[in-house]
# Entry
Amino acid sequence: MATLTETSVGPRTYPTTTAGPTAGTLQLRGGDLCATPIVRYDQGTVFGAEVSGIDWSKPVSPEVLKELVALQDKHGVLIFRNTGLDNAGHIAFTQLLGKDLEVNPFFYGREKDRLGEPLLWDVGNIELDGSIVQPSSRRWHHSRGNALWHTQRSKYSLLLSHGNPVVGGSWTHFADTRQAYADLPEETKARLEDLVIEHDLWHSRALAAPDVFTAPLPSELAAKPPAFHRLVQRGPDGRKVLYLAAHAKLVVGWGLEESQKLIWELIHHCTQPKYVFSMEWMGAGDMVWWDNRQSMHRSNLYTPTMTARDVRRTTVIDDGPLAWGVPKEER
Ligand SMILES: [Fe+2]
# Structure
């Protein structure tokens, strides 16, 4: 049995955390694992942890995997540094976490994809020809939506970095939708309990890049149609969460203006600094594994002078009862 030790985190890597003093020790079996909590609340719960001590050169054992999933359910976001994983190792680890991975709907053939792998989403800033994405490109405008707080209806996302660190830094920011829900006044919770939200990726794209995405292409609309989800859900550890994102367009039965007012009030509530931390990408092999059902995330906006940011994502399809949202007859 190995001890899961806890250490403090530096201000550079998680600059917006409100992490307090560390306390307590968790036990993990099957490896020399060390977990560093990132945001620790007064109630003793934690959001995010940096985990070390995994031998990524071989498949993760079932025992360690079980402990990691339990840690994930509790913490919502796990960060691993310097894993040494390549595309195949990235996909293989993800396949241990769920039998069905999402196939990238924007994958139009190996010759039209920089990574040539339909289970990987190329979410970096590099064009097919190797050049850095420019402000005139559709990819640039699409990326602007990733800088808004969002989540998607999948179980897990795992983002792995490749290549050199981005000159000037590169971050992914995470917000805890569990503690944010828990801290709402009881009368607000009652008002939100039965609401259903229409999520539309192209709504957030239009918010972030109105010149381009007010009229998405038919192929884009077909790849990502709207979905309907309950606003208040239960996360994997049984705690209630607010399930919302910049994709959230309408409260079912409400008008656009009053829907957007409520949705953005709640997004601002969830993204107060006390619920947020920022992961800096330090180098190739850094990997973050988050649970889309109990967090939101966002990237930084691209800048015209940024260097290559080569991050690639795998996604595990949600296999839970809420995965496909609210059927039409129940809305
Ligand atoms: Fe994202």
User: Anything to note?
Assistant: The longest helix spans residues 256-270.
